[in-house]
Description:
The complex is a heterodimer of chains A (530) and B (180).
Chain A: H1 2-9, H2 18-24, H3 28-56, H4 67-102, H5 110-118, H6 120-135, H7 153-156, H8 159-188, H9 201-232, H10 246-280, H11 287-301, H12 316-344, H13 353-376, H14 378-384, H15 388-418, H16 424-450, H17 465-494
Chain B: H1 2-43, E1 66-74, E2 80-84, E3 88-91, E4 97-105, E5 111-120, E6 128-133, E7 139-141, E8 146-155, E9 165-174
Parallel strand pairs in B: 1-9
Antiparallel strand pairs in B: 1-3, 2-4, 4-8, 5-7, 5-9, 6-8
Amino acid sequence: MSSTTAAHHDEHHDHPTGIMRWLTTTNHKDIGTLYLTFSLIMFLVGGAMILAVRAELFQPGLQLMKPEFYNQLIGVHALVMIFAALMPAATGFANWMLPLQIGAPDMALPRLNNWGFWLLPPAAILLTLPFTLALFGIGDGAIATGWTFYTPLSIQGGIGVDFAIFSVHLLGISSVLGSINVIVTILNMRAPGMTLMKMPMFAWGWLVTAFLLIATIPVLAGAVTMLLTDRHFGTHFFDAAGGGDPILFQHLFWFFGHPEVYIVLLPVWGFMPQILQTFSRKPMYGYKAQVVSLWAIGALALVVWAHHFFTVGMPVPALLYFMYSTMAISLPLAVLFFCWIATIWKGSLSFETPMLFATGWIVLFGIGGLTGLVLADVAADAQYHHSYFVVAHFHYTLFAGGMMGVMSGVYYWLPKMTGHMFSERLGKLHFWLTAISFNLTFIPQFFLGLAGMPRRIPDYALQFTEFNMISTVAAFVLGFSQLIFVYNIVSCVRGGKKATDRVWEGAEGLEWTLPSPPPYHSFTEQPIVK
Amino acid sequence: MNSNEKRQQDNKKLGLKLLWIVGAALLFGFALVPLYNVLCTVTGLNGKTNATADVTSNKVDVTRWVTVEFTSNVMPGLGWNFYPEQPSVRVHPGQIETVNFVAKNNTNETVAGQAVPSVSPGLASPYFKKIECFCFKRQELKAGETKLMPLRFYVSTDLPNDVKAVTLSYAFYNAVKPAN
Lengths: 530, 180
Ligand code: HEM
Ligand SMILES: [Cu+2]
């Protein structure tokens, strides 16, 4: 139906070409491509930073860098991976796929959409510029507090902190604009007949994410603004000398920070069941249960933040409250896991690259969730807090649960976006190298944490050497395997076997009714659902 | 076409409505500052113990002993020495006690400082009552001046039985701003 209406629209090329096309574009596919490209580049930048860190950690002692520089690398690595790699990837998919999935001609607020993206490159530059400035003797480098900006360290830090604060402001505005756009698109632009409960799960995942973003990003913006005025304008929000309280900053930060971990994951939880169902060739299990669970997790995410600083000295009732509420999140999360497993249960499975990543994702993300449960236990956390156990935990959630989910999505939709098939052989190689080296990087870190190695240190005691060596070697394999991913994407964009409209045998949903690649303007006449 | 324009208007309207949530969240973030302080003073969280005490009719519980330990820190940017005359005292709950801290200005200009107290364990802080303390207001020392700074306090008889020792820690900060 729609392929005909779309095809003739493709003929008028009244949009500008070359660089101006990308600067001024309000087309959802163009903007989606921009987000995804930006995300991939920043993924490599953040990865390069942390490989330098791992190289330093190969042996005890200081070989390659000063501790100050080490501290800058880990903090900027994290900010880059979260705000410039993972979140833009999710927004990129939202731009590309939401309108196609719900049968809309474009995103609801196209102009806003353009601004939303173009705030990102300046933000990334602001964040990393202090590294370069330091080379010219200006300032002492990037933010060195870790990504959490904890006071009082961040009050005492150099200009890197100011740059990071402004960067966070831009990133925040960008996410808020993106979220408003997503909400309006989902609520107002669905094809006739597509009721909320008929929406693709991806739309649900993003809807929850978008509400979390507009409710928490402003709190972060407020917190870093107070930090800025504490630093330069003589206020004392977090400065004990003036009656302020450094712990208050931790509350404000994690009021945003905990929902943030779901913000980066909910979009993945949205599209992953769609991928699982495609390669199981049967409908997804428990649609309603999944929708309810997504909302339950979104709501609970707002009231559990203090589990990030159990050790700060809280009264027992507060400890108990934050422990039990955190553990309560595992109930709806378990419902989701059961639905995902039930979706592939007894399906006619085939393991093309997206499905390899999707099944690997269930297992690895599962480990992330279970280790999180360990950390939520107040008594246990007293030992694990600020150790490498935490580092391993959040990489199982963020790298496996987030990034590998995104990779699955990239392989799933790339043929739709480019009109070409990618190399299955390279895709599979990428998966196995990633999955194996990921585990070899981070399993040793669990043991290191259990043995008492603290995080955020450039040097360590001798007995930790072997595990660190394994972790470093595996991290380099992991890092360089991602070049296969890049190569596969680039060659798929440039050519390859033609993709069919449906691409995958079991694929369901409106996006697969359009040609691959879909025309520049699609669904100018909305399809009727059912 | 008409329906298209109508939809665009609807979209803008909904977008603007969502901005209200953003604004409310921003306000909420700033409102957390006073809320947090109220919560901490009410519950004595974080060892915030600025509650001054009246000295009326204190029973002394001579059956119990509590050790009160003192620690002192001079924060960066304040060129002072600052330490308690004695590291700890043993008191009965309810008994009023005075200890002295010594502060010396090592710089050659007049400097104002502000001491910030904190009690641990945090749960004991509501029971630690200061009657008179140099931390109630900022202290000024002339160049090279040394001053004895007294603290009068008692530990309330309601202090839970399992608390045998209370540590009072002071951090002395440079009070950069002129008083008020
Ligand atoms: C090649 C892949 C990666 C490796 C080898 C790696 C390794 C590391 C290391 C060694 C640290 C510093 C640990 C410390 O001393 O505290 C770290 C921190 C961190 N990483 Fe990664 N990482 C990778 C990918 C990612 C991804 C994809 C994300 C997020 C999507 C991520 C998020 C974080 C976060 C949030 C921190 C905490 C930083 C902080 O505490 O300030 N990492 N990573
Ligand atoms: Cu959390």
